[in-house]
Amino acid sequence: MVNSRRSRSAxxxxxxxxxxxxxxxxxxxxxxxxxxxxxxxxxxxxKSKTAAVQIADIDKALELFKLDVGRFPSTEEGLAALAxxxxxxxxxxxxxxxxxxIPNDPWGRAYKYQGPGASGAVEIISLGADGAAGGEGENxxxxxxx
Length: 146
Fold this sequence. Notes:
By secondary structure, the chain is mainly alpha-helical. 45% of the residues lie in helices and 6% in strands. It has a three-stranded antiparallel sheet with strand order 1-2-3, covered by helices on one side.
C-alpha cells in the first residue's frame, strides 16, 4: 500500500495543476493582446512602403523612357509604354523598361498615371487601401514626389 501511495503522488507531481495552466493561458492572452496590434500595424505600414518603392522604380523607368524617346509617355499611352512600344513612338524606344509586367499596387489595383502636365512632371499614384482619393494611414494616397 505504501508503494501505491508513492506512485500516485509521484505521478501527480509530474503534471500541471489547473491553476498553473490558467495562469499560463492568462499570460499568453495578455501577450497576444499587447503584441498583436503592433505586429498588424507593421504589416499595414509595409504595404504603403512597398507602394512607395514600386512607384520609385516606375519613376526611374519613366526617366529611362524619356532619355530614349525624348519625352514621357502620354496619359493615353500610360505605363504600358514601359512594357511595349507604343504605336506613337517611331524610333528610340529601347524597352521594356521594367522586368516583367507593370506591377499592381500592394492592394491589387493598377497604379494611376498622369502624363506630363504644364510643368513637365508626371504623376504616379496608388490610392491606398480604400481605393479612394485622400485618406489617412493605410488609406492615404502614395505618389511620386516631384
